[in-house]
Design brief:
CATH topology: Serine Threonine Protein Phosphatase 5, Tetratricopeptide repeat
Largest sheet: none
Number of domains: 1
Shape: elongated
CATH class: Mainly Alpha
CATH superfamily: Tetratricopeptide repeat domain
Order of helices and strands: HHHHHHHH
Helix content: 55-70%
Radius of gyration: 24 Å
Strand content: under 5%
Distance between the termini: 82 Å
Number of strands: 0
């Protein structure tokens, strides 16, 4: 049997596949590249770029936002949910109209089982771009997950107080 990538299923491979981006670049390499790009170029010289806040987003601020959004996507692909959320927080702090940042932070929060805040992020994303079908789909999914969680909690705690009241009544009767 041919051991090329087309002739063998992923489960039959003797080694773990490296995760690749569409460009063929390894995700770990891309993460390191974007991280150094954002940190060295912009955070180190932030005092210099601060003087140019009046410039449009086609200047260094745009590149910083784009670099951070790409870094967040790399963290999502590497399943580093907390890091992705933190990078998106930085982007949102700098540009509250960055719909991609809200979407990616919502993705990270969903993976962290923070469905309420994830729903808020997807709702903000839909508010910024009402045509975003992926955000609408994720928003509906989050709503379903929240409802399911509430139902589980209802079933878990439904009879708890009745059982405690019955136990207290029995103790009082025995004490008499």
């Amino acid at each position: 049997m041919d051991r090329s990538s087309r002739g063998v299923r992923d489960s039959e491979r003797p080694h773990k596949l490296r995760r690749r981006l569409p460009t063929g670049l390894d995700v770990d390499e891309a993460t390191a590249s974007f991280d150094s790009f954002v940190n060295l170029t912009f955070d180190k010289y932030n005092h210099f770029w601060a003087n140019y806040d009046c410039l449009p987003l086609t200047t260094p601020r745009f590149f910083r936002l784009a670099g951070r959004l790409n870094l967040a996507m790399c963290h999502l692909k590497r399943e580093e949910w907390i890091e992705a959320r933190n990078v998106c927080d930085k982007v949102i702090a700098e540009n509250a109209a960055a719909e991609k940042a809200y979407f990616r932070r919502g993705e990270a929060r969903m993976k962290l089982n923070d469905h309420g805040p994830a729903r808020e992020d997807f709702a903000k994303c839909v508010e910024l771009d009402p045509e975003n079908a992926a955000a609408k789909k994720r928003l509906a999914h989050c709503t379903q997950l929240i409802k399911a969680q509430k139902e589980r909690e209802k079933r878990t705690f439904a009879n708890m107080f009745d059982k405690f009241a019955q136990a207290d009544t029995k103790r009082e009767e025995m004490a008499k």
